Amino acid sequence: FAPVAKLHTVRVILSLAVNLEWELWQMDVKNAFLQGELEEEVYMTPPPGLEDKVTPGKVLRLRKAIYGLKQSPRAWYQKLSLTLLDRGFNRSEADHTLFTLTSQAGIVVILIYVDDIIISGN
């Protein structure tokens, strides 16, 4: 599973954006679950159309997450959060889906709900 934003965190971010006249963006990350790296070995039978290209009785080892795996949402969250942390964002202790980046120029707030993201700031 992937952590999801708490409802009160969403409300606080939207309230800040309205009251402080911050711009507000929403995005949906396409193919998000295909971006994550698997931490453990996962094997699968060949999908339809590929059975004849694999020796009978053999299985395939997955190197990346795919849709349908219970690990995929978590792998996506880990990949995204590490990317944000590497770029200087701080993760909230109260809600691990909230990331902030502050500088003299202002603040950027990113809130993650699985593969949907709210971005705001001044």
Automatic annotation (TrEMBL):
What is the organism field in this record? Noccaea caerulescens (Alpine penny-cress)
* Family matches, as InterPro entries: DNA/RNA_pol_sf (IPR043502), RVT_2 (IPR013103)
Which parts of the sequence belong to the Reverse transcriptase Ty1/copia-type domain?
Answer: 1-121
Q: Name one Pfam family in it.
A: RVT_2
Quote the protein name from its UniProt record.
Retrovirus-related Pol polyprotein from transposon TNT 1-94
Domain of life, per UniProt, equals Eukaryota
